[in-house]
Design a protein that fits this description.
single chain, alpha+beta, five-stranded antiparallel β-sheet, 5 helices, 44% helix
Amino acid sequence: MRKTWELIRPTFVLVVICLIISALLALTYNLAGVAEYPAEFASTALPEADELKKVDVSLEDEDFHSVYKAQNGTGMAIVVTTKGYNELTVMYGFDNGGVLRGVHVIAQEETPGIGDKVVKDTDYLSCFGGQTADSFTVDVVAGASKTSNGLINGAKRAFELFEELKGEVLGQ
């Protein structure tokens, strides 16, 4: 028994040290309030915003990821998960009146050279800006219809979420 413990002990000690370090890193991350997304995401999705601050809301929705309020009062950004060919995580920025100001694709695993060209195409993504829920129309990109439909469906869901959250986030 003693011989077995001597063999296992170094592994046990190492595991305990790793658990302690992981817990301390998680605590530091939460206490420091490390931003979930870089500032350039916000400047693409809501160019008028000076800074976006995450708002905790009481919403349980499988598409909804998070919501951010512009500190200068110019609107809010909603992060949703949508389905293209694969899963997309997209930030949609809205002004206070519900006009979509911009789109930033945060994460994607679309097909290289096809779907990923759509999510990186700033000209295509700029077509989303200036749209409202009532008159929303964006064309599907030929050859990458699943990806562009994913972005379009994500925008439609973000419009719905804007209406649902604007009172809680913007005080409207």
